[in-house]
Specification:
The protein has 13 helices and 20 strands. The chain is α/β, with parallel strands linked by helices. The two termini are about 20 Å apart. About 45% of the residues are buried. The longest helix has 17 residues, at about 395-410. It folds into 3 domains: about 5-40 and about 220-290 and about 395-445, FAD/NAD(P)-binding domain; about 45-60 and about 75-100 and about 210-220 and about 295-390, Protoporphyrinogen oxidase, mitochondrial, domain 2 (Polyamine Oxidase, Chain A, domain 2, Alpha-Beta Complex); about 100-125 and about 130-195, no CATH class.
């Protein structure tokens, strides 16, 4: 009898359990929270209106086998399917409803002219070594002007750390910047020097074939509920509200795991989707490392009495002077912008001393300032929740520590597979899912 254990019930753990159920006699998924899904879950207010834990949708990975496993049972009737990710942004006091990328024209004509000259000259500067910091990486991509006036502030807003203190492989990075109108951008992007750093003026250009999905009613958490039901039909045991307290190993292989309720389960292989430090601690393997620098995120779940004035699914605020970081507009995601409820979730990045509840009036004021909520609109209801550990500040110490801990765990526990965010990178959902699929596929060949 072979038994696979999956630690963590986020989307990486859910896909892992689905794949492992094909290969092992028994699969046990262990999730600390009362429900699976992690940040891909939803909550409801007293009126039954659903909200998600941030800006989450379901997107194709591009690998047919994964997409079929994840989304094959979703019907067009119940799910709004779209190929264009409508996203806007607020930057230097102005809204751009046509693109998620900041518009460098806001920084002034002289600065923009200098920036374009720097991009044009960038290929001339040859670099024999890789960049050592994110600041250096941004300067090589955009030039000094755009790195300091545009890309740098977006990083500070999100992570609270200057790019010079971060690892060059930090995933939370603006990859492109708008520098011209639509016609001029098309012309510039024909030049290889500008094709990568410059963004199209509108998200309607350069649209790929990837499909995205969001439920026509309720929140994204209903996908988790349906997937969990499917896992149980596959024979997967799901233990929510439990943690792995101890990992017993001998001769470089895990033999069993013990849950915090005293239950012991034999283990043929362990798939770990949580921070590697937790595995090392459970296995009593000495290691060095400190928790990453991160800031809490306040989630403001709001309902208004009037439709939103912005057509986008998400709006990111890059201005460091405003508290709002990102806005999710659910009626637009549902494909029903003029149909109540007019609910949204606002992400605000704070620190250990932030009183998020006290920021509610400011958040509403900023929504109206940005023209997302009509000025006369009335706030009907609000809920404020906090994600204690938000985006990790990907300093060199953090990236090195993650790499060392992962290597240490894999060297000591040969039948343990660390996937998804147990490593860094990957971070984004599509990359995590692809990593899970490929890692389990490769592991099964060993």
């Amino acid at each position: 009898m072979t038994t696979a254990i999956v630690a963590g019930g986020g989307i990486a753990g859910l896909l892992s359990a689905k794949l492992l159920a094909r290969q092992y006699d028994q699969v046990l998924l262990v999730e600390r929270d009362a429900n699976c899904g992690g940040l891909l879950g939803s909550i409801s207010n007293d009126d039954g209106i659903a909200f998600d834990h941030g800006a989450h949708i379901l997107s194709d990975t591009g690998l047919a086998e994964i997409d079929s496993l994840l989304y094959g049972d979703l019907s067009e009737e119940k799910w709004h399917t779209f190929r264009m990710l409508r996203a806007g942004n607020w930057f230097v006091g102005a809204m751009n409803r046509n693109s998620p990328f900041p518009d460098a024209r806001r920084v002034g004509e002289n600065a923009l002219r200098k920036a374009l000259a720097e991009i044009a000259a960038a290929p001339i500067a040859r670099h024999e070594t890789a960049p050592t910091t994110l600041a250096e990486s941004l300067e090589r991509r955009f030039g000094t002007t755009l790195a300091s006036l545009v890309a740098g502030p977006t990083i500070r807003k999100q992570l609270g750390v200057a790019p010079g203190q971060l690892h060059p492989l930090t995933p939370f990075v603006i990859r492109r910047i708008i520098c011209a109108d639509a016609e001029e951008t098309r012309r510039l992007k024909q030049d290889s020097r500008f094709s990568e750093p410059l963004a199209f003026a509108s998200y309607e250009e350069g649209v790929g074939s990837t499909r995205h999905r969001y439920p026509r009613t309720g929140g994204i958490g209903q996908w988790v509920d349906g997937f969990v039901q499917g896992l149980r039909r596959d024979g997967v045991e799901i233990a929510c509200g439990r943690t792995i307290a101890a990992v017993t190993h001998d001769g470089g292989k895990i033999t069993s795991i013990s849950l915090d309720d005293g239950r012991t389960v034999s283990c043929s292989m362990l798939t770990w989707t949580l921070p590697p430090a937790l595995l090392l601690r459970a296995a009593n393997i000495p290691f060095e490392g400190r928790p990453p620098l991160s800031r809490p995120i306040g989630l403001f779940h709001l309902v208004f009495d009037e439709p939103f004035q912005d057509p986008n699914y998400h709006v990111t605020c890059y201005d460091e002077s405003l508290r709002i970081f990102r806005v999710t507009l659910y009626p637009n995601l549902r494909g029903q912008p003029l149909q109540a409820p007019y609910n949204c979730t606002i992400e605000v990045i704070g620190d250990t001393h932030t009183d998020f509840q006290a920021l509610l009036p400011q958040v509403v004021q900023e929504l109206k300032l940005m023209g997302i909520v009509p000025s006369p609109a009335t706030l009907l209801s609000s809920m404020v929740s906090v994600v204690p550990i938000g985006f990790p500040a990907t300093t060199h110490a953090f990236m090195d520590s993650m790499g060392n801990q992962t290597e240490l765990a894999e060297n000591h526990l040969r039948n343990a597979l660390l996937v998804g965010r147990a490593r860094c990178p990957p971070f984004f959902t599509t990359d995590v899912l692809t990593d899970v699929f490929q890692s389990i596929k490769a592991f099964s060949r060993v």
